[in-house]
Structures are given as structure tokens and as C-alpha cells.
Amino acid sequence: MAPPPCGPLYRQIYDRVRGSIVDGQLAPGARLPSARVMAQEMGVARGTVDMAYAILAGEGYIETAGRAGTRVAPDIGQPASQPIPHRAARGGSDRAPSLPLTFLPLTPGVPSFDLFPRKAWSQLVRRHAQSLSPASMAYPDAQGSPQLREAVAAYLAVARGIRCTPDEIIITGGFQGTLGLVAHELGIGGGSVWVEDPGYPRIVSALKHAGARPIPLPVDGDGVDVAAGIAAASDALLCVVAPAHQFPMGATLSLARRMQLLEWADTAGAMVLEDDFDGEFRYQGRPLPALKSLDCNGRVLYAGTFSKTLFPGMRLGYLVVPPALLARFRNAARYMEGGRPMLDQAVVAEFLAQGHFGRHIKRMRNAYRSRRAALVEALAARFAVPSELMSGAGGLNLLLPVKEGLGRLAAVPWGEGRFLGALPMAQLTGQPAMADTMLVGFTNVPEKQAAAMAGRLYEVIVGGR
Amino acid sequence: MAPPPCGPLYRQIYDRVRGSIVDGQLAPGARLPSARVMAQEMGVARGTVDMAYAILAGEGYIETAGRAGTRVAPDIGQPASQPIPHRAARGGSDRAPSLPLTFLPLTPGVPSFDLFPRKAWSQLVRRHAQSLSPASMAYPDAQGSPQLREAVAAYLAVARGIRCTPDEIIITGGFQGTLGLVAHELGIGGGSVWVEDPGYPRIVSALKHAGARPIPLPVDGDGVDVAAGIAAASDALLCVVAPAHQFPMGATLSLARRMQLLEWADTAGAMVLEDDFDGEFRYQGRPLPALKSLDCNGRVLYAGTFSKTLFPGMRLGYLVVPPALLARFRNAARYMEGGRPMLDQAVVAEFLAQGHFGRHIKRMRNAYRSRRAALVEALAARFAVPSELMSGAGGLNLLLPVKEGLGRLAAVPWGEGRFLGALPMAQLTGQPAMADTMLVGFTNVPEKQAAAMAGRLYEVIVGGR
Fold first, then answer.
1. 3-class secondary structure, B417
2. In this predicted structure, what is the pLDDT of residue A85?
3. Facing residues of A214 across strands?
4. Residue A90 to residues A82, A86, B47, B167, B170: CA-CA distances in angstroms?
5. Lowest-confidence range among A76-85, A350-359, B184-193?
């Protein structure tokens, strides 16, 4: 690190700008503030900045070209005299595998982006951005905007069979934010937590980050195996479960298992975190009520998200908290986070209240049913597997068994985007039965493109083994 | 709580709707989905919903009135047969004092809302909302959008003398989000943390929530008393400090104290969280470089926020993390929160990159200097106190000593909004010298209204004692 600024003022300005160029922070060709603006910004005389700029220009760091303004010299290399330890020292080695740079069509776990009602939504955004009242610019209610909490409570009552007041809802930053809050507030550090295997990988990461010990439980056609959990760790503090459609297997937790799970939680004094990320998207029969609707003793924390019903970049979700834990979770929202952005909350609240949300979900349910059928048919034909193997009651993904086997492809990092966004199941679970299965998102493949997409995927997989 | 739904389908629908009305969740007069929509929503036959609605109407819970649709009966009381334990049981007693319902003009610690460049900002919002690309709808980079981190790094280099790469920045939910992250990740539970007294009250609350022991340190004209900290708890794990303009006293941490603080942190292996919430707003002399610019050994976590430079409802801030802690904080961002909303980040990144931000800050610095001078003059005249007592080098608030004394008014909760948003200092500190001082925000009082506002405040305080 450079020594603290010292010496005459022009020298300090020179040091700052030069340091930023050398560090690579001001890129070649980048625009600098004019000397006048910089002088005001720094509270120094114009002449002081002029002098600093003159030296920098003389040394070839910057160019001042009349009305084109002042720029970092476009052809400046990294001066040989000054290595750039900052950048060079880090090669990104401490980063987890990164996401694909561009969006890929078979990405699992995301809603349709092409069918999103951009117009209705952006009109609401525009109106709220323009009217921007002092109340909406000020510090928000950390628990969530009252309007949004009311809209969510009304929605949950009708759509998910959950009775709660707006007071019992905390608006969060999607399921990941909810999980962070729950992991922190339940004090699970050092304790055991049941998780589904295979399951959503970030759940295990987040639990480990919070110091808890994840206990992976097998999943079958009735959902997670509760008896296996009781056998393995009856003293667990928490169970994280997706009862509607388990990710990624798609199974629905049976009523018998639901009762067994709640009974265990009652007996053990444990909590259940219901991850209802896609309960809305069921294509056969009626949407099932949430597990939470059976919770008589305040054992279930219910987590919903707008990531699948709207879009993930929104970062909004909601947590229904049993009354006994409310005070603690409200304080957590207040002191750990401070609340979600007002504009986003206002837009989503109105999107719900005006009925756009209900209509959107209904349209998506139909569209997903149809897109799934088309892609299943195309994949069944191209990969020569029975379509029944890919069916399920709901969700946003399907499981594609590859007869030919995946071979070394099973280990290709998802972030490389080799499979158009689809994910080898081997990266979610060590179960041998899943070694040659791909997890495929179908929500962003229009029916007309299904055959072509199946063909491309076949080429990539079977051609690339 | 009502028993789980059971019996025939129409009965389940009846139970759900009736339950929601009885719980007060569906208000008298509230609109219900049409039978057709409800049937689709629930995946049942239209006739099933018709039957449920007919019974509900027959019992007086709802009214179906042709094209006006189906509504909860407007005159419905709470049925005597069914008390409403949910609502009645909670009187809000577990809530902390709430904020004023409407925005008040003398609220401390907020930027000007009337001078915000709504037009430029809402144009950016509109454009981003309309163009909504799949990449911006998908899961964001949990560390923060690369564009925003680049813009912040460039800004910090020029405006605050901080050299860091975009890689070293985490985008957070404002200072509160930053504090939650830092408190959690530094593992301060059970340890001591130095805080300023008086100081921003939520810092102490957040630290206590994280299980740490706040050690209050006195503040004088040179800022926080570092020697007092060393005497009281040299083994503290963290010091939270606002070096630019201490809140609420306004003092700037002297260079000697800065060096002393960094030296202690080095020796003790402690960290310093620099809360640079309003370093931009200095009205005398040059803005001082951040404490972070003196940090040679990676002891300072630098926290900036857009709450004062833009507005708090945005919930965006940034944290510069020393390289040794980066991996841990990146994981925390990933597993505790999942990233901030994409739209907000894109808008703010462009607001910075296009130069709106720099211009806005410069305009606000001038406007605040002028508004402060006008309000100081008006208060000095009306309260008959020397204006020098209210001056300071920067910040968004001023301290008004009330000669007549505050008496019992000192305890009136701020949330009641009795003082037009101003806050009795007695609620921030027990120091006797502050017992009769008010903390007054000046950013939302146009020069022309200063005299009238001073008059109103005088009436409320001196008339209300």
C-alpha cells in the first residue's frame, strides 16, 4: 500500500490520481473530473489541481485534450517501475465457482424471463420512481413495508392456506436472506440441522457458514425421509425442507411425512423451515396447502420468495414467524439488515394488490405446463428415454437420464455453461443412481424451440463425452 | 389457530375464507376473487366455489353483487361466537418505539428530500425497468454488481483518498446491513467493542444483538477518546467510529487520535469499523481523507452508505474489506444475504458513472451549508443562544442548547414527532451537559422557512415544558 498522502497539496492530488492509474483502478482512457470540478470536490484552488494535472500529463499518465476533457492516457501500460501487487496477488482463487456470464436457456430454478409482464411492472416502477415521496425516501420499516406485508398475508391465505397477520411477516432478501436470518437467530451454531439430499446446495453452505452440522437425509417419492432423520439425529435443532416440490427431485412431501415431521419437531422442541419456493407451480391436480397450514404449535417458519414468481434479481422474499419468535426476528431484521428497498417493496405490493401477481402466476402455471410438456417430448425423442421418467407434479425443472452416460462431463463446472445451463446431478449429490442424470430448466424454452434445444443438448452431451 | 382443513372441498374453501374474515385479515368490504378465478386458482370445479360462496353469503360473511363482484360484507362485525385471539393478544408491546408516520422537517441524519434530482434518477430507473434483461433478472453477484463496485472504487479514490480494487468492495444494505455483516463475521459475541458516547443508538443495539459488550467512550473536540478505550478495555475486538463528523457531536477525529487508534488496533489485533456516513458533507475547509487511507496493516473496515448521499429508502451501502478478510466476507454476502436488488444497483452505478452523483454531492454541500447557516441564524435569534454554539465543520445536524431547559419534554419519545422531528439529546446520552440540548436536522428546511421553523420549534419546546 502506498504511504499516506503528505507534502504539498498538488503532490497529494498527483499521488492519488497516479496511484489509482497504477493500481489499474482508473483504466486507460478513463475520464477524469475536470480541474475545475476536482478543485471544488477537494476544496482546493483550481491552480493546485492544474499543477498536479500538468505533472501527470508531463509524465504521460494523463492527457488533457481541450473539450474532450482530461483522460487517463489510452496507451498507458503498467509502468515497469511499479508492479501491481494488489491485482496480481489475487487470482480469484478465494472465489466460489462463478455464475455463467450470460443467461443460459436451460438454467434450472429460474422463472421464465421472456414471459414476464415487463410493461405492467415497469409502469409501476416508473410511477413510484417519479412520485418518490419523502416517506418513501426515508428509513423504511425494517420488518417490511406494511402494504407489502398486508398483500402477502392476503395472498398466503388464499393461495397457500396459511393464516397469518401482516404483523407475523418479515420481508427478507429472498430465500437466501431468509436462511441467513433463520440460521443466525435460531442459534444453530454447533447443532445439527436436517437437510434434503440431494437438495439446494446453498442451504448446506449457509448452514456450515453459520457453524451448524448439516445432516443429509435421503429423499424418495414421498419426499424427505423423516424416520431417517430421527434415527440419525433426533436432537437436531432445525429441519430445512421443501414440501411442495423437493429440489431437485420434485417429490411432494406426503401427508403422513408432514405429520411425522411436525410431531418430531414438537417432541424435540425443534423448528422446521419450510422452503416453499415454487409451491405455486403445480401442474397436476390442485396446489397443496403449505406445511405451515398444519402447524398448530408454532414449529414452522414459512419461507416464501418472489424469486420464482417474479424474478430472482428482485431479491425479495417473506418469512412467516410463529408468535413466540416474533420479537427476536423483528429485532434481527432491524439490527442485521435495516429493511429492504422501499421502491421495490412498493412496486411489488401494488403488483399484488392490483391483481397482476395472481394473473401472472396463473399464466405462468399454464405456460410452464405447456413448455414442460414440449421439452419432455423433445428430450424423450432425442435422448430415447421414456417421457414418464421426466414427469413430476410441479416445479421449474426436469430430470433427464442420459442412457449413454455422462462420463467425465459429470464434473464440468456448471459455471462454464457447457450444457446450455443444465446441471449434472453429480454436482448436487453423490448418489450413484443420479450419476448420469441432468437437471434441466424448462421455463425459458418456448415450445417451438424445444426440439432444437433438445438437439443442441444432445450434441453437447453425447458428442462431448 | 383453526384446525387443518378437512372435509369436502367446498367446506375447505368456506373455512379458508371465513377464517380470513374472522381473523380480520380480509377486511369488511374487501374484494374477493371471482368464483371463476378462485376455482382456477385452487384447481377445483367452479361449482365447488359457488357452493362455498353461497354458504358464506347465506351466513352474511360475504356479498355477491353482480358486476361489482364478491366482497366481504361491509358491515360485518367480529362474530361474537369467535373471538380474535391473534390480533387481540398482541398490542404491539414487543415493538420498539416506532418512527413517525409522516416525514418531519427537523429529522436528524437524513439528506434533503426536496432537492434530490428526481428527474435524472427516475429516468434511469425507468430505462432500466423497461429494458430488464434476463441477466438483470437472474440471481445477482452476491458481492455486488461489478459495475457498481467499479464506480464506488473510482469514487472512493478521488473523494475519500481510499485505494481499493472493486474486488475488495462488498455492496451492502446501508450501514445497518454493513454492521450486521461485520458483527456476525468478526465473531464479536462475548467480546468488547468500543463505541462512541453519545453515538448512533442502533450501533449499540446491533452490537448487543450480536452478543457483544459495547464499551462507551467519551467524545470531545478531537473525536472519540482512544486513551479512555485503552484504559477501559484494551482487549476489545472492534472499535466502531465515525471519524469525519462524529454523530451527533460533529467532532472530527484528530490526526493524533487516528494514529493512536490504528496503533492500538495493530497491537491488540483488533479491527476498526469506520462509519463514514457523511464524510462528503463538510462545510469548512477541505473534506478530510478517510481514516482508511492511513490504514497500512489492514485493520480498518471502511463503511460507506448511499443513505446520506442519495436517500435511506434505497438501502445501499458499501464495505471495503482488507484482503485477509475478503474470502470470509464474500461468503457471508453469499450465504447470509444473496446480494442486493439488481435494478437499484444498476441505477446507482449509472448515476455515479454518468457524473450525476458527483454533481449532486457538490450541489448538496452548497445547499446544506446555506440551509444550515439560515437555520442557525434563525434558531440563535429565536432561542437567544450564540450561533457559535451550534456551528461545526460538517454533518447533517446541529445541536441546539435550550436555555430554558427541556424539563419533562426531554423524555417525550421521538416517535411521537412532537418536535417536528428534532430529538432531545437526553435520549441518546445520559451526559448531564446534554440534558437540555436538542439535535436538529437542517437539511430539509429551505432558507426561507428557517425563521418560521425556528418559531414553531420554540413554541413547541418553550410553550410545552
1. coil
2. 28
3. A193
4. 17, 7, 65, 9, 16
5. A76-85
Considering only CB atoms, B335 lies closest to which of A206, A307, A358, namely: A206
Tell me how far CA of residue B170 lies from CA of A108, B344, B423, in angstroms: 27, 15, 33
How far from the centroid of its chain's Cα atoms is residue A90's Cα?
A: 26
pLDDT tier at B58, thresholds 50, 70, 90 = low
β-strand B169-172 against B70-72: which pairing, if any?
A: unpaired
Q: Touching check for B211 and chain A: CB below 8 Å?
A: no
Q: How far is CA A53 from CA A10, A21, A69, A191, in A?
A: 9, 13, 12, 60
Q: Is B89 on the interface with A (CB under 8 A)?
A: yes
Q: Is A69 helix (H, G, I), strand (E, B) or coil?
A: coil
Nearest in space to B21 (alpha carbons), one of B12, B33, B35, B32: B32
Residue B59 clears pLDDT 90, i.e. is over it = no
Residue from the list B122, B138, B154 with its beta carbon closest to the beta carbon of A132:
B122
CA distances B283 to A412, B365, B367, B387, B400, Å, are 57, 7, 10, 16, 18
Q: Is the pLDDT of residue A223 over 80?
A: yes
Using a 10 angstrom Cβ sphere, with 0-12 exposed, 13-18 middle and 19 or more buried, the burial of residue B36 is: exposed
pLDDT reported for residue B79: 36
pLDDT band for position A48 (cuts 50, 70, 90): confident
> Does B74 lie at the interface with A, CB-CB under 8 angstroms?
no
Q: Is the peptide bond before A248 cis (omega within 30 degrees of 0)?
A: yes
Tell me the per-residue pLDDT of A284-337, one tens digit each, with 9 for 90 and over: 877 678 999 999 899 999 999 999 999 999 999 999 999 999 999 999 999 888
Element (H, E) at A440: strand A437-441
**pLDDT at res. A89:** 29
Interatomic CA distance for residues A31 and B360, integer angstroms: 18
Closest chain A residue to B342 measured between Cα atoms?
A: A313
Q: Write out the three cell numbers for B435.
A: 440534558
Q: Which of A34-43, A121-130, A140-149 has the lowest mean pLDDT?
A: A34-43
Q: What pLDDT, on a 0 to 100 scale, did the predictor assign at position A87?
A: 28
Which residues in chain A have Cβ-Cβ distances shorter than 8 Å to B255? Answer: none
Are residues B138 and A107, on separate chains, in Cβ contact within 8 Å?
yes
At B135 the pLDDT is 81
Q: Any CB–CB contact under 8 A between B122 and chain A?
A: yes
Q: Which amino acid is at B136?
A: S
Is residue A259 less than 8 Å (CB to CB) from chain B? no
Which chain A residues in 123-162 lie under 8 Å from chain B, judged by CB atoms? 125-126, 129-130, 132-142, 153-154, 157-159, 161
The verdict on a CB contact (< 8 Å) between A113 and B137 is yes
Residue B378 has pLDDT above 50, yes or no: yes
Q: Looking at this predicted complex, what is its ipTM? A: 0.79
Write down the pTM of the prediction: 0.80
